[in-house]
Each structure stands twice: as C-alpha cells, then as structure tokens.
Amino acid sequence: MGKNFTSFSYKNTTPFTDKIKINGTGSTYELGYAMPLKKFKDFSYLGSITLNDYNATGESDLNNLDWKTSYIGIQNVVDYRFYDSFYFFISAQAGLNLSTILYGKQQLNNSTYNLTKNKDFSGIILQPVVGINAKYYISKSGFLSLGCNFTKSISLNPTPEKVSFNTFQILFGGYFDLIKDKHL
User: Fold this and answer.
1) In the predicted model, is pLDDT for residue 70 greater than 50?
2) Is position 180 within any domain?
3) Distance between CA atoms of 42 and 159, rounded to whole angstroms?
4) For residues 94-127, b (16+ Cβ closer than 10 Å) or e, as one string?
5) Is 153 within a domain?
6) Which of 140, 171, 6 is nearest to 77 (CA)?
7) What is the number of other CB atoms lying within 10 angstroms of the CB of residue 134?
8) What is the pTM of this model?
9) pLDDT one-digit tens code per residue, 38-54
10) Higher model confidence: residue 60 or residue 168?
11) Which of 11-20, 52-61, 94-103 has the lowest mean pLDDT?
12) How many independent structural domains does the chain possess?
C-alpha cells in the first residue's frame, strides 16, 4: 500500500480553452505473488492486482476542477536484485499495469459529472511501471519493503482530448513466504 502523487495532462481540442494545472494525491493498494526465476538468480516475477486512486484538483481564473477516480488493474513486473546484504537488499523493477476505471467523479465549478462513461477515462489504461525497492528481512519467512515507482498512463481509447496522467508512488509493503523449503 502507499500513496500516489499524480499530475494530469490533456490536449484540449477547443480553441481559447482555459488551461488548468491538474494534480493531486490518492491511495494505492497491491496484492500479488512474487516468484523467483530459477535460471536467473537475481530476477523475480511479480504478478498482482492493483487498486489506484488518481485524484486531482485544479484552479484557474474561470474554473475550479476536482477529479476523484479509482482504477483496478493487473500488474506484471520483473524485479532485479542488484544489492544484497545479510538482511537487506535493493532491487530495480520494470513492468506493465493494465487497468480500468471503477469509480470516477468530476466536479467542475458547481456541476458534477460521472467519469466512468467518459471515453477519456474509461476503457483500458496501459501504464509502464519503473521503480526501485528496498527490502529488509524480519524473519526467515518474511520481509518489509519501502519503494517508489514512476508510471505514465496511455489510454487505448482513441479520443481527441488524450487525457493521461503521470504518477509517482511511494509504497510500503510486506512479503511472506508461502512455500517452505523442505531442506531447511
């Protein structure tokens, strides 16, 4: 679990439109499975289900804007452990998240809109993910982690306004070994 820091960008097709800087914070949750790749000892595969809140506010001389959105997704990541100490290691991660909107509300001045049916927000969102993660063993069967990720959304819907968002995530986690080694 952790925190999303998101900035939105869009190409508005309407001339003379008020430009608003839109950014905000939300929560992130992830539940998954990590599996070492036996042929490559420092690599692991991580598959997970994600729930991300991408919220934002913006203000200009003419408009006040507030977006509250939640996306559910499937994330696949390859983890490369490049530093290994006795109880502590650091790894780099790269992968892909495919998600779709669960909840979305826009407040523009005094009007409220449902974003789940809006083509700029709905459909499949593709997000490349890169990050770094530090893990500390708390026992033989578990460890805690602290990490950060960078993502950029790419909507697979062809829309004229091209809404996308860049996200910096700070993540706190716990990992627990579900399969005990018989030789220990």
Assistant:
1) yes
2) no
3) 41
4) ebebebebeebebeeeeeeeebeebebbbeebeb
5) yes
6) 171
7) 15
8) 0.86
9) 888 899 999 999 999 99
10) 168
11) 11-20
12) 1
Report how far residue 47's alpha carbon sits from residue 8's, in angstroms, rounded to the nearest whole number: 26
d(CA 180, CA 24): 42
Extract the tokens encoding 31.
């539940």
* Sign of the alpha-carbon torsion through 158, 163, 168, 172: negative
In a domain, 182, yes or no: no
Report helix, strand and coil shares of the chain as percent, to nearest 5: 0, 70, 30
Q: Which domain holds residue 30?
A: 2-175
- pLDDT reading at 126 higher than 60: yes
CA distance 73 to 128: 12
Residue with tokens 């992830």: 30
Placement of tokens 């500390």 in the chain: 136
Residue of higher predicted confidence among 20 and 165: 165
- Residue 181 inside a domain? The answer is no
In the chain, the amino acid numbered 10 is Y
Kindly report the CATH number assigned to the domain that includes residue 47. Answer: 2.40.160.20
